[in-house]
Amino acid sequence: MENKRAPIRVADDEIVYNEFDGTDSFDKTIRCTYFIAVLFSEGEGIHAIDGVEHAIGPRQLHFLFPGQHHHWEVGPGTKAQRVVVGKKVFETFSSTEIFHLVRYNPHPVFRLEEEAFRAVNHEMKEINVLLLSQETDSNWRAVLSIRMDLLALMISREAENYVKGTVLKNAKPLVQDFWTLINKHFISQKTVSWYADQLQVSITYLNLLCRKHLNVTAKQLIEQRVLLEAKQRLRFSGMSVKEIAYDLGFSDMPSFSNHFKKKSGFSPKEYQQ
What is the per-residue pLDDT for 3? Predict the structure, then answer.
């Protein structure tokens, strides 16, 4: 089978599917401006993500988030599917807290159990069918959106198993306690100092632990949780942007809009639409 390479540039609102059978390589580091999910059915070779090399093997799922660098050398006998998702589409389904923990973790590669592999494999193939269908019938776009949400849920479920079983399990209990506190108090408490006081540690030590185990600062973790809640409410609550801003503890609309745009790349109105 001749490899169908995904384009280097993908529009913000575009989804691209491709598959390859045999050797494939990127011989230079590429900075992604989009999200990529790669499912290896069989394979060998090396995939380097942000300088960390991962051995490619069967039933593996690899994540690449916007802003990450990667390159790979894939050996013969490799079979894989790749879904490339534009930033705007990605932002609509990257709304689980677990997804963002994985986003900052330097090891976004998972080996799936057989049942999970079959499910993700099936969804990827269905997405390809829908992408072909929408070329002749735009009504399939809505069905494609549902399929993408389903694929994202499957991926986040596998990510959650990894985070709970590996990342948080191997982290100090203090990191887990910090994450729990954020989820309880992120609306009313947005300063690192408040959480450090509750945990009876210094801000410096809390940042040190977050960087070591999650590859992110304490402040960034709080901000991401606020952003995730804002996304969910913009998509599903039916509330106005102004109502959401005040409900999330922002003093005014401009503060909320500036924070949201800085972190997501879109204004609240753009995201909501």
Answer: 44
Question: pTM of the full predicted structure?
Answer: 0.66
Structural domain includes residue 229: yes
Distance in angstroms (rounded) separating the CA atoms of residues 37 and 130: 17
Beta bridge partners of 110: 61
Q: Which two tokens stand for residue 67?
A: 């802003």
Of 111, 138, 169, at which residue does a domain stop? 169
Residue 221 and residue 206: Cα distance in Å, rounded? 11
206 in the same domain as 92: no
Task: Determine, yes or no, domain membership for 202.
Answer: yes
Number of folded domains in the chain? 2
> Would you say residue 5 lies in a domain?
no
In the block, tokens 């982290």 appear at 171
Tell which residue, 123, 95, 97, 101, has the closest CA to residue 37: 123
Q: pLDDT at position 36, please?
A: 86
Residue 182 near residue 195 (C-beta atoms within 8 A): yes
Q: Is 4 exposed, middle or buried (0-12, 13-18, 19+ CB in 10 A)?
A: exposed
**Ordered mean pLDDT values, 10 residues apiece, the chain (273 residues):** 51 85 72 85 89 90 83 88 84 56 62 89 90 74 77 74 64 83 93 96 93 84 87 85 92 90 84 78
